[in-house]
Amino acid sequence: MSPLPSTPVDLLVVGAGVVGLAHAVEAHLRGLAVAVVDRDAFAAGASVRNFGHVCVTPQDGDALRYALAGRERWLWLAAKAGFDAAESGTLVVARRPEEMAVLEEFAALRGGEQVRLLDAAGVARRLPGAGALGGAHLPLDLRLDSPTVIPALAGWLEGQGVPIAWRTSVLAVEPGLVRTTRGDVRAERTVLAVGHDLDRLLPDVAEAAGMTRCLLRMLEVAPPGGVRVAPGVLTGLSLLRYGGFAGRPSAAALREAVAAESPELLDAGVNLMFTQRPDGAIVLGDTHHYSATHAPFDDEETAELLLREGARLFGVPSLRVLRRWRGQYASAPAAVLDTEVAGGVRAVSVTSGIGMTISHGLASAVLDSLF
């Protein structure tokens, strides 16, 4: 663990998840004196509990702009920090005519560089057993292994001389001064990248942004038959969650079809998708539940719903669970919370569950406005 800086820094980042580390990277590359503090002994929050899916193409608006910039930064960092950023893209599996209609409209909008439509055989070559009508390949998307990438990124920063003070909680933030459990730090600018914990540190700011906590149920399952699937995989339910898809005219008909056939999937906020870890394990998810505080008890029916739909996607009778966990992220009406809370102090959270995708692009934009 690095000690707190004894002299003032240009930028202090609070939070060593992907959003905080992205700000530290961008500040370091601009030649700024930057330091990071985090309350835990290592990154253990949303940044290591996700799919590791850099889901570039399905975004729209500012999120797409941040995602495209972030993609280039991830590829650059992979070479520098020694982790893998697989340029394997995303496979979108369409099993309803309404899903294929959304993909056709999306492909017409974005063009062949971003979206390559597939027939049933093209999907089956990439994911046997899916029983798809067709689908699409999104070649720009990346796959990362979050539990190894985030520590590697933190380690690279420390190797570059950026101190990260772990097990250091923030008590108060003032212009030019951050008080922590290990002492005070003076900083010209401060970025609070504490994710959903902003509602504990600065509850009024979180409430003003309409922030709540989104709880996810996620599973790691054994690959059926040892299958290897290179791209991340999205399904028709994903077409209802990401702005680039959900904004297409046919998305309304798709939602109606899902509501008529499987309303329990919408009730549980299911976004059926998966990625495969380097060791072959499948990260399967996820469900979405929203509350300021979540009960500590997990309903097994939710896991059974994911396992049922996952088995159908792979075309097998059942899946064998290796691990289970809860994910949690900040959620708000806007995709990003970026607000000045005091002179030179910014609270920055990704409030849409796409932190791995947009953090680096967002950090670059924030620093442009700070310095």
TrEMBL record:
<dbReference type="GO" id="GO:0005737">
    <property type="term" value="C:cytoplasm"/>
</dbReference>
<dbReference type="GO" id="GO:0016491">
    <property type="term" value="F:oxidoreductase activity"/>
</dbReference>
<dbReference type="Pfam" id="PF01266">
    <property type="entry name" value="DAO"/>
</dbReference>
<dbReference type="InterPro" id="IPR006076">
    <property type="entry name" value="FAD-dep_OxRdtase"/>
</dbReference>
<dbReference type="InterPro" id="IPR036188">
    <property type="entry name" value="FAD/NAD-bd_sf"/>
</dbReference>
<keyword id="KW-0560">Oxidoreductase</keyword>
<dbReference type="InterPro" id="IPR017741">
    <property type="entry name" value="FAD-dependent_OxRdtase_HpnW"/>
</dbReference>
<comment type="similarity">
    <text>Belongs to the DadA oxidoreductase family.</text>
</comment>
<protein>
    <submittedName>
        <fullName>TIGR03364 family FAD-dependent oxidoreductase</fullName>
    </submittedName>
</protein>
<keyword id="KW-0285">Flavoprotein</keyword>
<feature type="domain" description="FAD dependent oxidoreductase">
    <location>
        <begin position="10"/>
        <end position="366"/>
    </location>
</feature>
